Amino acid sequence: MVASGRVTDYAIGPFAPSAIVRPSEADEVAAVLEWAHRNDVAVYPSGGRTLSHLGNTPTRPGIALDMTGLNRMVDFQPADLTVRVQAGITVGQLDSELGQDGKCVPLAPPLAHRATIGGTLATGISGPMRSAYGLPRDWLIGVSVVGADGTMSKAGGQVVKNVTGYDLNRLYTGSLGTLAVITEATFKIAPAPTAWAAIIAVFENNQAAVAACRDLLSQPFAPQALHVLSPPAARRLGDPNIPAGYGPVAIALIAGRPASVKRRVEDTALAWLDAASALHIEGEEAADLIELLADFPVSPENPPSVCVRMNTSPDALENLLAMDHHEIGEEAPGVVADAGFGGGRLMWWGDLSGENAVQVAERLRHVQSTAAGLGGDAIVETCPPAAKELIDVWGPAPSGMAIMRRIKQQFDPNNVLNPGRFIGGL
Amino acid sequence: MASSDFLDELRAIVGEDYVIDHREDLLVYEYDGSVDRSMPRAVVLPANADEVSRVMALAYDAGVTVVGRGSGTGLSGGAITPPDGLQIAFPRMNRILEVDSINRTALVEPGVINLDLDNHVRKFGMRYAPDPSSQRACSLGGNIAENAGGPHCLAYGATTNHVIGMEVVLEDGEIVHLGSQAREASGYDLRGAFVGSEGTFGIATKILVRLLPTPESVRTFLGIFPDIDSACTAVSAVIGYGIVPAALEMIDALSIRAVQNVTDAGYPNDAGAVLLIELEGLREEVEEVTKEVESALWDTGAADVRIAEDDAERERLWVGRKTAFGAFGTIAPNYYLVDGVVPRTRLTQMLRKVNEVSERYGITIANVFHAGDGNLHPCMLFDAREPGVMDNAMAAAAELMEECAALGGTLSGEHGIGLEKKQFMPLVYADDDMAAMQRVREAFAPQNRLNPGKIFPDGSYYRPAPHPAAHTAGLYA
Fold first, then answer.
1. Does residue A121 share a domain with residue A54?
2. Hey, are the CB atoms on A423 and B187 less than 8 Å from each other?
3. DSSP states of B143-162 as a string?
4. How many domains does chain B divide into?
5. Is position B393 within any domain?
6. What value does the mean pLDDT take over residues A156-160?
7. Within a domain: residue A393?
8. Are B185 and A376 a contacting pair at CB < 8 A?
9. CA 20 to 30 Å from A228, out of A45, A73, A173, B476?
10. To the nearest whole angstrom, how far is the Cα of B183 from the nearest Cα of chain A?
């Protein structure tokens, strides 16, 4: 099961693993981890490699564990609205299989056709519709994992409601593979929307956009998701329907049954009559826009050289939009703010390889402390490797850091799984 | 513990009036809604997080076990305190500190009553979605410990889906913040691990909950079925069509009789089972889904489908559901309520098993439960004065747990494991699964000083005499 792929394909920033192992069943994953544990070799689990740059730089040499060989749908129970899959299946493949039955697990990670279920859970990455559909952790009802010493275990189960024992599903989700390697996951599933629409409106200024969003979000016909893009972000998104104006662009995303989609579209258009300009798109075009927004932070056509995820509450919307003056060198960031859920992203696109790493790091720390001042945090998802060496991409240690350290110590005492990449060097 | 010095030090922290240690005053703290009973050495009623922290630090240094108590409505023994343990209760920490309409959140203390919060935020056009049947009495702190559910969890998820951040006190008195003001936070999801940890990780002293907007349109209806099999088929049909209602509850014939004995909820006396279904959302959406649900009910053999005409009628239908457990008092003086989950398509099979167990053990069992998510609540009705009846009920419950596990389900959907079901854990989890869980407990509470002896089948463990009298009250579910 030693794979023939090039190790550089599995690089994590400047770090390249010494070998690639590609198991095809959970017991092979267990054998690899048991071997690694015995020989004190670090293991870097890998999925669709769409977010492999996430996290701090690895601190120990080790091997890549390519999970894409575990790619089967194990059990689909449409009448129970549950599905069990191996971790290496892509989100796109799961979407298409469930879609044939009119169902979905509404995850929408970036590059869903490549992103794996395991990677989506490990990163906890959420999509543009999260304000209506929630986060990956909200859909996961059971997992099978292999622990750092090769021991297989499971948590949760196959039923949609479960308080039997501690909720390890939520602990593993978003733990970046530092506690265990997910081999199988069970989700509850939902009916897939049958209609899509988006309303795109340009506003005079941030204040007007924020006011319009607040008003819309307080209405019963509020869209499933509502994002505000600063002008540079709107231009970079590359959707032909987005007007290349000079004001912030609000995008209301609407999905569901045709009758309710129609109502939301009509009432939103009425509510936004004051916008400088507004247009609406439907069907495929709207679905494409949602995908474009999902892919934006790692867009293959237009990848940002620095991308920071802001975890802040909805009332920080205006503060977030005002962060467009946080230049790196000459380059100002574009802002994508999630008005409904809160938070969003700052993205810088210019070539920043010539910038002084100390100054880049200084700016990123400033962004992180601004987020802290807003009661949240900021995660540096993408940045030049030299700057990454100087910061913790996950931000300053949170209040529960000592507990997190003890959890890591309990689950992976030899520091074998993804060493150094998570918060506080875990 | 127990030295009078320790109690004096507790009094110095919280005030003379807020340490309870007289036997007669402790009687109400020796049981919760479960079958177990044990009198704590003392109960302390702190006023704020600082007092909780100092009490916990004191207990930690003295080697005293601490158990948190909400309103004592728990059904798995979560608040039962060992005889030498200290119980902390929160009637004085019951303030709603803040309601934020823009962020749609509320910041509350752990002693706030679930329904009080919901009623309060409805003034702002919002709601707190988790609605356990005990919501008139149960507290948010207890809801967090047990990851409480309720009928509307079908569409909106259990407590864990509605908690954004918490201030908690650890076993040694340290105050930490889990989660944040934002719904996503950097690092391990300690918030997610904490909710449902049954008081073994720490004690929440402030809770930031998520609120939902009240829906534009609500439609409540009753599907009336000749027997429980056809009602189960209807549940599968509704879910199988890809419809997830806000609530989908089943009430069997015996429960209908009990309810109608005490109040006219509008349930027909001759029905074999009724389904109480609620749809919420935009008018257009509710309109469309109503038609689909109606046809699913007719297609699966409904004798009648009735839609509540107005708020009063809707209220009446829900009063029936929510008073069912109290109404069982008209059938037998005591009850033992079992919580279990099966995949939704296995409901028919599971209810046949319930029926078979009922006959074999000679115990009357009523069923009122969250059918939409496969969460059963077989309720055993008996007179505890009859010798051996409790043991008989426990043995019957054990068989039901085994069947839930065998059908691919689990031990508890919303009541927790506590003392009640810890011996059944091996039915659903292997040793390695439980070892992984224990690692998280080791990280939160290395000395295992909080609510020890719960959840897991081994460890320090006591089981006092059953106290069925606790079950004559009818608030629990």
1. yes
2. yes
3. HHHHT---TTHHHH--GGGG
4. 3
5. yes
6. 97
7. no
8. yes
9. A173
10. 7
Token pair listed for B281: 């959302």
Helices B431-444 and A401-411, axial angle in degrees (round to 10): 150
For B163-199, b where at least 16 C-beta lie within 10 A, e where not — what string?
bbbbbbbbbbbbbbbbbbbbbbbbbbbbbbbbbbbbb
What CATH number is attached to the domain comprising A199? 3.30.70.3450
Q: Answer yes or no: do B257 and B313 share one domain.
A: yes
Question: Is the CB of residue B222 less than 8 Å from the CB of residue B278?
Answer: no
pLDDT confidence bin for B359, thresholds 50/70/90: very high
Asked if A103 is an interface residue toward chain B (Cβ–Cβ < 8 A), one would say yes
Per residue in A59-93, pLDDT (tens digit) is 999 999 999 999 999 999 999 999 999 999 999 99
Answer yes or no: do B321 and B350 share one domain: no
pLDDT, residue B471, reads 40
For residue B477, pLDDT over 50 is answered with no
Cβ neighbours of A60 (radius 10 Å): 15
Residue ranges making up the domain that contains A314: 304-388
For A:393-422, CB contacts with B below 8 A are: 394-395, 398-404, 406-407, 409-411, 422
What percentage of chain B reaches a pLDDT higher than 70? 95
Q: How much is the mean pLDDT over chain A?
A: 95
**Dihedral-angle region of residue B185 (phi above 0 means left; psi in -120 to 50 means alpha; beta otherwise):** beta
Q: Measuring CA to CA, which residue among B293, B197, B200 is closest to residue B244? A: B293
* Minimum-distance CB partner of A153 among B197, B288, B436: B436
Are B58 and B13 in contact by the 8 Å Cβ rule? The answer is yes
The answer to whether B342 and B374 have CB atoms below 8 angstroms apart is yes
Residue of B nearest to A145 (CA): B433
What tokens were used for B12? 């110095």
Task: Report the number of distinct structural domains present in chain A.
Answer: 3
> Does residue B274 share a domain with residue B209?
no
Spatial CB neighbours of B172, under 8 Å, sequence gap ≥ 6: B56, B57, B60, B447
Which residue range(s) make up the domain with B393?
A: 328-415
Taking the C-alpha atoms of residue B156 and residue A368, their distance in angstroms, rounded to an integer, is 32
Residue A300 half-sphere exposure, CB side, CA atoms within 13 Å?
A: 8
Contact between A201 and A172 under an 8 Å Cβ cutoff? The reply is no
Q: Is residue B426 part of a domain?
A: no
* Segment B247-299, tens digit of pLDDT: 999 999 999 999 999 999 999 999 999 999 999 999 999 999 999 999 999 99
> What ipTM is given for this predicted complex?
0.97
- On the question of pLDDT at B313 being above 80, the answer is yes
> Which of A247, A271, A295 is where one domain is finished?
A295
In the predicted structure, residue B458 carries a pLDDT above the cut 90: no
Environment class of B17 (CB within 10 Å of its CB; exposed 0-12, middle 13-18, buried 19+): exposed
Angstrom distance (rounded) from CA B426 to CA B456: 9
Lowest mean pLDDT among A327-336, B235-244, B311-320, B418-427: B235-244
- Give the one of B103, B182, B432 whose C-beta lies nearest to A152's C-beta: B432
pLDDT higher than 60, residue A327? yes
A78 and A140 housed in the same domain: yes
Q: Which residue has the higher pLDDT, B105 or B474?
A: B105
Structure tokens at B447: 């000395």
Q: Do residues B196 and B146 touch, judged by C-beta distance below 8 A?
A: yes
Rounded Cα distance between B85 and B82, Å, is 5
Express each pLDDT in A42-55 by its tens digit. 999 999 999 999 99
Average pLDDT over residues A19-30: 97
pLDDT in tens, A166-205: 999 999 999 999 999 999 999 999 999 999 999 999 999 9
Taking residue A284's Cβ as centre, other Cβ atoms within 10 Å add up to: 9
Structure tokens given for A265: 């579209």
Mean pLDDT, residues A97-107 = 96
